Amino acid sequence: MEEEYYKVTAEETIKQFETDRNEGLSTQTVDERFAESGPNEIQQGEKTSPWKLLWNNINDIIVYLLLAAAVISFLMDDLAETIAILLALLLAVLTGFFTELKAQKSVESLQSMIYTTTTVIRDGKTQTIEATKVVPGDILLLREGDAVAADGRIISSNNFACIESALTGESEAVEKSEDEIYEEEIPLGDQKNMVFAGTAVTRGYAYIVVTETGMQTEVGKISGMLDEESNDKTPLDVELDKLSKAIILAAFIAGVAVLIAGLLTDKPFVEMIHISIILAVAAIPEAMPAVETITLSKGMRTMAERKALVKTLPAVETLGATSVIASDKTGTLTENQMMASELILSDETHYEVTGEGYDPNGVIKKDGEEIDPQNNKELLHFIRSGVLCNTAHIDQNEDGEYEVVGDPTDGALVTLGKKVGLDRQELEKDGFEKVAEVPFSSENKYMIVVYEKDGERELIIKGAFDVILNLADQTQKVKEDLKEQNEMFAEKGQRVIAIASIAGYDGGLSEEELESSLAGLKIQGLVGIIDPPRPDAYESIENAQNAGIKVKMITGDHPKTASIIAKDIGLADYEKIMTGKEIDEQVDSEDFARIVDETAVFARVSPENKMQIVTALKEESEVVSMTGDGVNDAPALNDANIGVAMGVRGTEVAKEASDMILTDDRFGTIVDAVEEGRIIFDNIKKYVSFLFACNMVEIVAIFASVVFLLPMPIAPLHILFLNLIIDIAPAMSLSYEPAEENVMARGPRSKKDSLVNRHFLTRIVFSGVIIGLSAFAIFWILLSGEQSGEYLQTAVFTFMAIAQLMHIFNVRKTNSFGLDRSLFQNKVLVGSILLSVALQLVAVYVPVMNDLLGTEPLRPITWVIILVGAVLSTVIVGIFNKIKYHH
């Protein structure tokens, strides 16, 4: 059984690790332990090797069918056809392989571990070392602002507190002390004598003895719990599986039907086998894997430009099917920055404060009107007291963002000061001298300072409202009024800090004297502090909900606080709340999944609860995008259809577990990514419709010729030329189609709205049959002339190329004809159509291509017949689509 160090004293822990609190470990012991325990780091999940990526692209049903066709062509001594099929195969495999390899490398660069250092005592000397070199038994010195490098037992501390939100989800600092010892098992968040890797020190300092490193830390254990790969198939995987089966079925039926028809009409067996292979090849959209990969990788690049780095190609499209976004609150919907939002002075004057997090830009308002604090002596005095009774400071990082060094609540008061032009360092330069201090402690729940200026002293105290109220020397009525104000703040989900003072303080300056000299203490006012919503959260949630996506907020906060924030950010059904305790009680009930699906806010939840929420939503057939940044989010991120980690605030473990990393941490970026996913699905439907209809054309024309005992209307190489040269560029260019107007006005597509549904197949089959019969009609008409077989096949081959290119106008818009002004928004499509026409002319008129493909130059009259037939077939298909599907 593993040791529970929170149950033993600091001395016992030191003894157990054979270390010394003053000397630390010797260099020799460190080397031995490092060899035994390994580097202090979280192991990254196994990368997919290039060979595995290549195999994933080879292991595809279309590839196997093409391989079979190539083998049969080779056995029948048709070398040109064999080479053409093998080129199709190579194109399909290598495009996917290189795109995925590039995507993997971009993710690896983002996930490279950040270099961190820590302070350690070794051989009696204090030294700075790489965090990866820490070993069990090391004595670490942790100070304000430090990241905790490993799990450890506190052996001595002073006014020490840590932020553990990455591990527990709680956004408030946790008081720590070496003296705490527990007899029973308690959760991590309540182990006050322990520190954990991945958390941060907000104030004070402590010496710890390292108890666990690397994968043995609490962070490491959660990382180890994650499955290396989610076995869930994405919606696109399911769709393409269905498509592959439809392809096999179409190829098989076409081949068998032609074989039987040929044998019944006494055609040679070998010739009919060859024709069956041609039909099988015609039925397979060889360009499909390449176009699919290129579309998804383009989506991947577009999302990266919009600050969403997607780690796998299918995840790009899965986003478009998202029906629920289950969002972690802290740092995702809120700033994860404490901010003073309201003030009430002792005379009950109420003020609002504007701004965002620790950014010093903001103003003070009274009754909705901005005021100048410089003209308000009492307000300025109150804010100055909060600035002086403080140890935190605000810094700007390399990205220009403001960060707190110290306690987040203190940071809120420092920022408030900056908004009215007050700064502790500047005040001290102006003559305010700190002469005494009692640091904040979890026992007292207050901090005291005494400042002197011009020979006059003032004692300032700030802390928890109920503690300061009991110490205050004020009338019962004033106290009752203040209680009412405190309740008003608390009902808004705000944390309340009271600030009080004694002007003209003349007592002693030791801690004991200060604490016993509080007679005459007057409360100056109260500050309501919040973790404010991110500025774009409201609009993003509104956009998501308008798109039919349910947004659910998951938090470790109190239910009342959670509900208030949910209301502020515009969450629908924000009053429908479920706590972690209620989840634990109801998880085995029959209605659990339905209740979770109907709940908007989950409060006081554990990591296990997050997993239960995701599982329940998936049971209700929801496609779940789960967001998070902490270690505690990782299992749920891994289990969701799409796990979304925060790239700025997110832990390495969360990024490792996710499918998508937001490089700007905006909730709105998820909604942008969902929109991109929907556009991609629309465009996938367009090019699948285009490619399958084009393949149907070839099948119908050949089948009709066999039935009517006519020669082959098209040669095998012509089919491959159409599928690989003519169709591929326009199909790929459909991935550049802009969003249709209603893309975010409709609900998420249901799992029933698959690619291979009756509506979709009817459209493909009808289009293919009309164009295919038109090709056969042209063949029939030209047969009556004196042309050679090669000339006839060239004419049919060219008609198919032109008619298929015109068919693109029937697929590029869902509910209208695509030959309009919007065509020029997709310049790639215009260019690809012109390119395909040029390539077809090369195939018909360049002598070397005549020899290779068995084509002959066409006369003008044949072109007239081809163009009239192409226009007529396009118009008929367009009218059919408009009548049957326009709504």
Automatic annotation (TrEMBL):
Membrane topology, from the record: Multi-pass membrane protein
Which molecular function GO terms apply here? ATP binding; ATP hydrolysis activity; P-type sodium:potassium-exchanging transporter activity
Note whether ATP-binding occurs among the keywords. Answer: yes
Q: Which PROSITE patterns match?
A: ATPASE_E1_E2
The entry's keywords:
ATP-binding, Cell membrane, Membrane, Nucleotide-binding, Translocase, Transmembrane, Transmembrane helix
One record GO biological process: intracellular potassium ion homeostasis
Report the locations given in the UniProt record.
Cell membrane
Major subcellular site:
membrane
Ranges of residues in domain Cation-transporting P-type ATPase N-terminal: 4-78
Residues that span the membrane, as ranges: 57-76, 82-101, 246-265, 271-291, 687-711, 717-739, 760-785, 791-809, 829-848, 860-880
Output a single Gene Ontology CC term carried by this record: plasma membrane
InterPro entries named among the record's database cross-references? ATPase_P-typ_cation-transptr_C, ATPase_P-typ_cation-transptr_N, ATPase_P-typ_cyto_dom_N, ATPase_P-typ_P_site, ATPase_P-typ_TM_dom_sf, ATPase_P-typ_transduc_dom_A_sf, ATPase_P-type_domA, Cation_transp_ATPase_P-type
Family assignment from sequence similarity: Belongs to the cation transport ATPase (P-type) (TC 3.A.3) family. Type IIA subfamily.
What is the designated name of this protein? ATPase
